[in-house]
Amino acid sequence: MRADAEKNRSQILTVARDVVTEHGTDASMRDIARRAGVGLATLLRHFPSREALFEALLCTNLDALTQKADELEASTSADEALLSWFRELVAFTQSYRGVVAMMAAAHTNPDSPLYASCAAVHAAGARLLLHAQGEGTARADMSGDDLFALITALGWAVDQPSFAPRADHLVHLITSAILTSPSSNDAKQAAC
Q: DNA-binding region at which residues (predicted)?
């Protein structure tokens, strides 16, 4: 890639991160191009669709969540790993308003640019859940799809201004429903 093209791409991503943080996933591609100081055609040359732009913005975060699942699984108890990872994923969904709907649609659509990263996050969560179920610390009647659906629902809820202040409490309620014996750290947090 030419130096000026790489500079434009980098500028677009920097501006897009700010615009999406401000306005969520419905941010205007035209506004992103304008604020980046490039034409819409230049933006579309680098990112031919909204999903392609979001893949570039989000894949680093989603890949980090997948890696975090591996680290937690290797270093902590199964229930603590699932709980910590769940909290990190919910925190990530709060950083970009509307991202959960995009992730929910992408994880089953192989044609989506976000598919690989979302499918990897889904698989990581399913693996952590399975590990906790194997140790008897998570409900046996749940699947990875159920876990992903709960994360999506919670992500949507905390996206709403009326529920955002209760995000920690909502995470506690849902994780209490997933785990058969809430961890001591979670119990201490709930008591606060």
A: 28-47
